[in-house]
Design goal:
six-stranded antiparallel beta sheet; Trefoil (Acidic Fibroblast Growth Factor, subunit A); two-stranded antiparallel sheet; 12 strands; mainly beta
């Protein structure tokens, strides 16, 4: 009888996860549309499962339901610009540096603007970019 070994996925495979923000709500979307706002909401919805590449210095963060990437509206470099989802076309505003803060806690620093994504203060709250020193710029990685 042959025994099959279970193999781990290759190191380059992107793991799926949920990202819980400072206020206790998860990064989520509520529409399949490009340019739909990225908000904070329930951590149990299928709309809030994301994957990212393993290169934390230049990663895309992709919603697995919509297959669209986290980005900043219009590629803005202004603090306060909203987070949205858009086609994963490689534009610099759709690429992020994932900065490890502590165990399973990260900041998402936009490579286009240099600002970090901050969570909204309530369910349905909008995400936006702001200085990385904001406490709301820290996201906790939780299982999907």
């Amino acid at each position: 009888m042959a025994v099959m070994a279970l193999m781990a996925p290759p190191a380059s495979a992107a793991a799926t996860k949920r990202w819980k923000g400072y206020w206790g709500y998860c990064l989520t979307v509520t529409s399949n549309s490009a340019n739909a706002q990225v908000k904070t909401g329930s951590c149990t919805s299928g709309w809030n499962i994301w994957k990212n590449g393993t290169n934390h210095n230049d990663a895309t963060i992709t919603n697995i339901t919509t297959n669209l990437c986290l980005t900043i509206a219009g590629g803005s470099v202004t603090s306060g610009a909203q987070g949205v989802q858009y086609a994963c076309d490689g534009h610099l505003s759709r690429r992020w540096k994932l900065v490890n803060v502590s165990s399973k806690k990260w900041r998402f620093q936009n490579l286009n603007s240099g600002y970090c994504l901050i969570s909204g203060p309530a369910s349905g709250g909008l995400t936006q970019q702001a200085p990385c020193t904001s406490p709301a710029a820290v996201w906790e990685e939780i299982s999907a």
